[in-house]
Specification:
Elements lengths: L2 H9 L3 H14 L1 H8 L9 E5 L5 H9 L4 E6 L2 H10 L1 H5 L3 E5 L12 E7 L8 H11 E12 L14 E3 L2 E3 L2 H10 L3 E8 L4 E7 L1
Parallel strand pairs: 1-2, 1-4, 2-3, 4-5
Antiparallel strand pairs: 5-9, 6-7, 8-9
Length: 208
């Protein structure tokens, strides 16, 4: 599979191949998610949204952390919604988790709903970073937190710069300062960024 096809299937996993990708992400990103979540405090009764929930394991982790809270997951791939629903069937059955099909550009939630919004390995596939950030800010409560956790893809395959952001084969690869600029433009406060270059990891935390 070439780079273009790899990016395409990861950006919107569909079909049997997409399901395999979702299951692999559930396993391969577990350590990265744990590292990222160490940067925020999750209260037991938190209301949380996971944007781009993929195979659903991150939603399960969030449900364990917010044991008395309510967790929502959204993904723009119906096949990933189905997979995440299957993965979280127990918590969905008791009403603690809800999985829905949605784009980050138009979230199906009212203003000021969530204490925490997470975005794991997803924002470089968003159609417009600042638009997505503004929509997330809308659904966050005042004082709420956005957590972005990504791999940085510091590799020659992703070195092209065709736009103000680092565009690579259909992925938008953002530097720490590009995240900061976009978040400030979207109206977020107190942006904090942590990087682990040897692991190719970046975490961004911002407050509404």
């Amino acid at each position: 599979m070439n780079v273009k096809e790899t990016v395409r299937i990861h950006s919107r996993p569909t079909g049997e191949e997409g399901k395999e990708i979702g299951l692999k992400m559930n396993e391969h990103h577990f350590k990265l998610w744990g590292w990222g979540l160490n940067h925020v405090s999750v209260e037991p009764d938190s209301s949380i949204l996971d944007v781009g929930c993929g195979g659903g394991r991150a939603v399960s982790i969030l449900a364990e952390l917010a044991e008395k809270g309510k967790i929502y997951g959204v993904d723009h791939s119906q096949d990933m919604v189905d997979l995440a629903t299957e993965y979280n069937s127990k918590e969905i059955g008791i009403g603690r988790v809800t999985i829905m099909e949605s784009s980050v550009s138009e979230l199906p939630f009212p203003y000021d709903k969530f204490d925490l919004v997470t975005a794991f390995e997803t924002c470089y596939f968003w159609p417009d970073l600042e638009e997505g950030l503004r929509e997330i800010k809308r659904v966050l409560k005042k004082g709420g937190t956005l957590l972005i956790v990504n791999e940085m893809y510091d590799h020659e395959l992703f070195a092209e710069r065709n736009t103000p952001y680092n565009t690579a084969k259909g992925m938008n690869i953002y530097s720490a300062e590009e995240y900061r600029k976009a978040l400030n433009s979207a109206g977020f406060l107190a942006v904090e960024i942590d990087e682990v270059p040897e692991d190719n990891w970046i975490t961004v935390v911002a407050k509404k």
